[in-house]
């Protein structure tokens, strides 16, 4: 029976590459590549994704030995829109797709997993299930809904996808917590509205992006709440408190007010021309009473690399059972594999059917 290493080696030889050349191309040491090809070390999910793209080889074939007709992962991506050219784009989508393939493989390697429950169908239902003041604990609220949240600094933007029956949002861990909140709300909109593939070149991309933006705006800044607030008499401290409580930026709030036709006081208008951090540092009422720096703490939380705890646990159990190498878990944790002190028995010899079962 051929192995993943054997299939990678065959594809490498077909392209006329040496082990050293392939290792350099995908960022693996020459020794690590040699050991992986010989079954003495596993490939991390992101490494296999990089190898697949470098060799122009079908990713699923490298894993299972069975080719697929379309290995492109359906995702809903947060776009940038150029108002002058009217062009939508995701500037680094080619780089991101390699990381997204790595995420997909991490789910495949986890084995049999429970599917996510059905999401609520309206913004109001989502808000009700997330609970009051959910923006402060948005990730925990999403996980309670059955949506997995992944944050990686190497991603350029946010994506929503379904992996092995799990609904997943992957975001850029930039430390910008209000941008993260909007991205989570936007991608949740794609999942709730069942947008299966929203890339810049996909049909109706503009309409679906607009729908996801509208979903995010209503989720984070409900129209009824906005119209029920006295924006015409509000002061900068009250604005700062609203930004903190709802987890939004000055720009998002400014656009929301304009969209709803609400004219705020001159003080509010002036404050919303500042950056979010400047308004909070200058006016937020909770800053002085907090023993420490809550704003910096929130930025730190939004910069953390994270994968769902259950996914990490699934990998750990399979590693300890000798069913999986530890490279993908190390990648998820952002550490070198040799830093993980985990007993890693040699994987048993598996039949073709057993391998397919292992890969889900």
Could you give a short description of this structure?
The protein is α+β, with helices and mostly antiparallel strands and 360 residues long.
Q: Any overview of this molecule?
A:
This protein is of the alpha+beta class and 360 residues long. 51% of the residues lie in helices and 7% in strands. It has helices spanning 4-14, 19-26, 30-37, 45-55, 59-64, 93-109, 123-130, 138-144, 177-192, 205-220, 223-227, 236-246, 250-259, 266-271, 276-283, 294-302, 309-320, 327-333, 352-358; strands spanning 76-77, 80-82, 87-89, 147-152, 159-163, 166-172. Strands 1-5-6-4 form a 4-stranded mixed sheet, with helices on both faces. A two-stranded antiparallel sheet has the order 2-3. 39% of the residues are buried. Residues 81-89 have low confidence and may be disordered.
- Uncertain runs with pLDDT below 50, 5 residues or more? 81-89
* Rounded mean pLDDT score: 84
Helix/strand/pairing category: alpha+beta
Strand order of the largest sheet: 1-5-6-4
Tell me the series of helices and strands, N- to C-terminal.
HHHHHEEEHHHEEEHHHHHHHHHHH
């Amino acid at each position: 029976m051929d192995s993943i290493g054997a299939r990678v080696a065959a594809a490498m030889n077909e392209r006329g590459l040496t082990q050293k050349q392939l290792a350099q191309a995908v960022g693996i040491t020459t020794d690590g590549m040699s050991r992986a090809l010989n079954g003495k070390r596993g490939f991390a999910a992101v490494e296999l994704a990089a190898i697949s793209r470098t060799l122009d080889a079908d990713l699923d074939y490298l894993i299972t030995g069975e080719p697929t007709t379309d290995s492109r992962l359906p995702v809903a991506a947060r776009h940038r829109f150029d108002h002058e050219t009217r062009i939508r784009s995701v500037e680094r989508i080619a780089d991101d797709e390699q990381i997204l393939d790595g995420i997909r493989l991490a789910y495949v390697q986890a084995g049999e997993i429970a599917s996510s429950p059905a999401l609520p169908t309206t913004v109001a239902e989502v808000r009700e299930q997330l609970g009051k003041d959910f923006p402060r604990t948005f990730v925990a609220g999403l996980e309670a809904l059955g949506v997995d949240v992944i944050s990686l600094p190497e991603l350029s933007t946010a994506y929503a996808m379904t992996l092995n029956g799990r609904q997943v949002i992957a975001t850029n861990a930039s430390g910008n917590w209000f941008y993260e909140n909007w991205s989570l709300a936007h991608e949740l909109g794609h999942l709730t509205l069942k947008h299966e593939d929203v890339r810049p070149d996909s049909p109706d991309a503009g309409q679906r992006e607009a729908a996801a933006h509208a979903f995010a705006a209503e989720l984070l800044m409900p129209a009824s709440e906005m119209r029920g607030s006295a924006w015409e008499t509000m002061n900068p401290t009250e604005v700062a408190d609203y930004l903190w409580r709802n987890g939004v930026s000055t720009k998002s709030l400014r656009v929301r007010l304009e969209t709803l036709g609400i004219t705020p006081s001159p003080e509010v208008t002036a404050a919303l021309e500042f950056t979010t951090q400047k308004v909070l540092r200058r006016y937020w009422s909770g800053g002085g009473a907090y023993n420490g720096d809550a704003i910096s703490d929130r930025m730190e939380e939004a910069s953390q690399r994270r994968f769902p705890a259950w996914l990490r646990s699934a990998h750990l159990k399979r590693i300890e059972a000798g069913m999986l190498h530890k490279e993908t878990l190390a990648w998820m944790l952002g550490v070198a594999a040799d830093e993980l002190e985990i007993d890693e028995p040699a994987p048993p010899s598996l039949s073709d059917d057993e391998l397919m079962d292992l890969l889900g």
